[in-house]
Amino acid sequence: MPGDGFLLLDSTAVPRGRRADWLAGELRAAIAGGALRAGSRLPATRVLAGELGFARNTVAEAYRRLAEEALVEPRVGVGTVVAASSARSTRAAAPRTARPRSASSRGDGRVAPAHSPQGPAHEPIDLAAGLPELTAFPRAAWLRAEREVLAEASRRTLGYQDPAGAPALREALSAWLARSRGVVTEPGGVIVTAGVTGALALLAGALLGEGHDSVALEDPGATGNRRILEYWMPRVEPVPVDADGLVVEELRRRDADAVLVTPAHQYPSGVVLAPGRRRELVAWADERARRLIVEDDYDAEYRYDRRPVRALQPLAPERVAYTSSLSKTLAPALRLGWLVPPTRLVEQLVERQWASGLGSPALPQLALARLLDSGALERHLRAMRARHRLRRDAAVAAVRAQLPEARVHGVAAGLHLLLELPGGVDDARVAAAARELGVLVQPLSVQRHRPGPPGLIVHYAATHPARFERAIATIARAVRGAR
Predict the structure, then answer these.
(1) Which ranges in 296-375 belong to alpha helices (H)?
(2) CATH class of the domain whose range is 16-92
(3) What is the pTM of this model?
(4) Core-most of 83, 218, 315, 373, by most CB within 10 Å?
């Protein structure tokens, strides 16, 4: 059988409805027992399906489950191989060692430890990285879209492009944003950016050009966004958040003519900006010429127990600059995002985009346009909602069982939970203790400008459901030790 030293499998007595379970179990046992060693290449799904008499989708499903457990990993141009870290127990399989990472719009950018104190067989469970399930990236659909783009690419396609973005993507985005988020725009009003970070850098330059020297943002809020704005703007003004979202009355007390908000799912509290607060915020923007609301719609695609929340932008298209990216829908590595600014800012923002690098790479933009036009991206998002919901449920169940004294916030949507800890607990000390025990988690205090109640931010999307009981039990141990 093709593959690196692949084993013989007898599938003759396996019931049809249990084939994926059986195959995943056989491969899992072979990896745990050493019959399949790190780096061994598994047969192509088509080949193994033919040998076993299974449907190809059955084999693909078994491979997917093992990839979720970090036992195997797909490699472009190679196939599916046994992961280097797969020798550990399959029941407690953890992600590969966390590596140093740059700041994201949801993270604090700190360096994770290179290894757990328990050694390489007990690598840390990472609940600190604000990532989707990256093993589920739609490789086949993306490769198909890229091949189609390259097959049809003309000399003009391969030349210099509009710094605002490929026209095909701007048209596809305007239609998709109108349909999915209610955003009011034409294709010419969409600017393709290097993620939300790129959009914030463009907007900061525009604000400085108009004479503004400060911007307000939510407190607590995303540390990555804060750091980007602190880099560009002379002053960043924190504004508190309560159960209804940004406290607009407090915003009025700040000397700022721009504010960054996450109205659909506030990070990290998970609250939705209440309708009354939305109206107050728009009224604040209308009080003075050139005031700007920056809407970061970072994970609005993921909702589980509530109806979709419309974007803020339709309430005041000439006051709101709407931005989002593919970081939570596909992968941060694509560095693709979009910005829908007020009409008065479009021309100067495109000029700034041109001056800072001529815009984003065109071929990935055209591949994304194909995914949007074909419906492949929306099908992927539906599948990811189901997968992330299972992980959300596992995380919540583990918290209720292992850490019942914590109050859980942000359950209805998004990719993270906020655990409010009992008063008097030092959340930074808890996070440090959990790290020593092999679990990475973000303390709420690092997302604050000013002191406030302690808490932990648990990012669940990239963690297999089977790992949460152990991870939360470890955090509970750290909480008890911090009292």
Answers:
(1) 343-355, 362-374
(2) mainly alpha
(3) 0.73
(4) 218
